[in-house]
Input
Amino acid sequence: MKLTRRHLLAALPALGAAGLGAGFVRMLHGLNQGHFDPRAINTPLTGQPVPDFPTLSPLPDAPALPGLARENFQSLKQPVLLFIWASWCLPCVEEIPFIRQLATSLVNRTAPLALWGLCYKDQPASAARWLEQAGNPFTRLGMDQEGQAAIDWGVTGVPEAFLIMPAPQTGGRIVWHRTGGLTDALYQAHIRPHLEGTP
Amino acid sequence: MTTLATLFCPEGGHFALALACALAFMQGVLPLIGLRRADSPLTALARPLALSQCLALLFAWTCLIVASLGDDFSLKLIAETSAISKPWVYKIAGLWGNHEGSLLLWVTLLALWCAGLALLPGQNATRPERLPCRLRARLLALLGLVGAGFQLFCLTTSNPFLRLWPVPADGMGMNPLLQDPGLAVHPPLLYGGYVGFAVPFAFAISALLDGKTEALWARYMRPWVISAWALLTLGITLGSWWSYSVLGWGGYWFWDPVENAALIPWLTGTALLHSVLVVEKRNLLQGWCLLLAIATFAFSLSGTFLVRSGILNSVHAFANDPARGLFILGLLGLYGGGSLLLFAIRAPALPVPQTGFSPLSREGALLLNNILLCTLCAVVLTGTLYPPFMQLLFGRTLSVGKPFFDATTIPLTLPLLAVMGVSMALPWRQARADRLLPRLAPALLITAGAILPAFWLFPTPLAASTALLALWVISAALCDLALRLQALPKGDRQLHRLPRSLWAASLAHIGVGVTILGLCGMAGSQERLIEARPGTHATLAGRDWALTALTAHHGPNYEAVEAHLTIRQRDTHGPVLAELTPQIRLFPQQGQRTLHVAILHRPLEDLYAALGSVKEEHDPQGQGHYTAILRLHENPLASWIWLGGIIMALGGVLHLLPARRRLIHSAGKARA
Output
């Protein structure tokens, strides 16, 4: 059989479909592994220093839980995972068992990761009640009742999470950001690699 | 009721689905063996198998409907999507508003198309134009294989008959946004169209397996293409209508992946519709037509299923499950990839016609139409797949939206409209320019006369020129009808004497023109966001919009706040044009708030009001005042968008109606 231009033309659709198919298989694989997420959005902040944001007050009746300010990021000793959450947000309820589990596992580790929270447009009373029921995993918590800090951080909704690495000159550098709830698969794929090598 | 419930119990439905899957597999395999061995009893099994498969699936549906109407929350599907307080219409229609149910709908519609094919009378000595029985058995077998794969998918990963334990006392209820009559019929129509393209697909595979096309295959295939196309057109129209009238933000098309997933097969299906004509009349473009038939069905499949795999980021949130995605991709690879591979192997050997091809002819115009439609399709496909592929290959996240699609699709649509106007006046084989111009002159004159008014009426030069081209399409179709009427012999000069296919094509083209005019009109829509207390007046589009009252309203499964708006012509003393009552509805069961938009449709504009929110404020005296946030729109020519869609589909339906024999008879006499 002699190969002609007709053969080449007739094979093009199949080749195109095979290319698309291979791409889809990779995407599905990535979805299962947690390193491909079509819902991810680009925050301008990834790779950049922590933004300037107004100092956030702590919860009124929780003396052990300090608030959150720009200065807290300047003297970082370890990486920080900052959670944006609210008591009125259903996906936050779904992700809290994982965060609790993460908080417990971090207590005994030599290279710990600090879990900080930013409570977005929430009533202090309901936020406190929520933390009491779920068990508080955070070591710092800022109340962003007006949502101004959330805008500075480029937050589009709750829940969201930021991973911040210590950077003495700039005062903390955002290395990873996620829109939506956090799972163990995502943690293993994105956060663990950043933690290797830190003291 | 109890005996009914026992007969149609969910396990019965589950069993019927499994039985249907087995029957579909037999329908796929036995006739093919029969055809190969020239064993006619085995071949003849295709029809009864197709009919019994369809009956089994209808039985499964009956079981599901009985369970839903009887509020059987021991079924997972019903517990998750229904509730005691849900109106009974939506207890039925809600069944296909989720992944499992819509998949069952998909396979059932395929079985119905098979049953239609099986019930259609076959070819005999007196009616050679009908489908040959051997070809029909082949088609049924191929469709059976497609159905078997998806029923297996339904049974193994998305079974609608799964039970739930412990049984909840009440269901979780359905997304209130979906509780709309338009959306109750939208999935069956849309899926009917998607699935309907399986029949032309089977025609194409059958031809490729033979390595040659039957003499009349394009003619056999055409009605199936047209009926699937008409259903898809109606389905898309209804979906767009729903997003306009229910979502409450005043838009009709989001360029969302799911919408594009319906638009892509519609574009290739429209191209197929036109290339079939070229194959039928001139025996040209055979390979191209086969490819389009395969591509349309492959796009239908990928559109319906990619969205459910979670790959495409869409507002249409079916429960995404990557585990299902792999099964789907396997099926897509098997049917889509397999048939494209078959095409790659067999298509080069198809006979090449030796007839000449003139660019200035009906087939030339249809070829141009195909090129433009397929380029449009490629553009929409690129815009839809660009974000996930960019992320996969370069790790960049981005979104492609209206600006991209506007900038790319409009420049392609304009020449398409220009060609549409000319094509109807062109004869097959070879047109003569000196005869063409007089035929087009009346339509050209009408369009030229409308230039000044169009630029005055439409907001932008682009909208005005697009509207002019739409007018050109409509007037060309009407003038063509008039000229052909004049060409009839004097005694017979009546509208119904014209061939039905001509009427169908003209109607479809007029429908396109009407839709495009609607889109151009919407480009000039005006909107205002106002914060108003009862008694407030606002001016929009030269009308006075007054908020007269805010009242509470109780619905069957929701609580609502209703705003009463009075719209007056000109100013506060003008005659009352309309009373609109938009609502905010709170569905306590889902804890969901929806907007119930109020729309007044007028021939040339829609007056549209949405109530965004209501807040209570207290003045220093402690008295409460309610303030409403209202969004008011004036949408010129809005309803023309969907009217055009209905006219297009009507054109398709008209084509399918059986030709009157008397007519053929008299035409024969006239020729003699």
In short: The mean pLDDT of chain A is 83. Residues 58 and 104 of chain A are 22 Å apart (CA to CA). The first strand of chain A starts at residue 80 and ends at 85. Helices of chain A lie at 5-33, 90-107, 124-134, 148-153, 184-195.
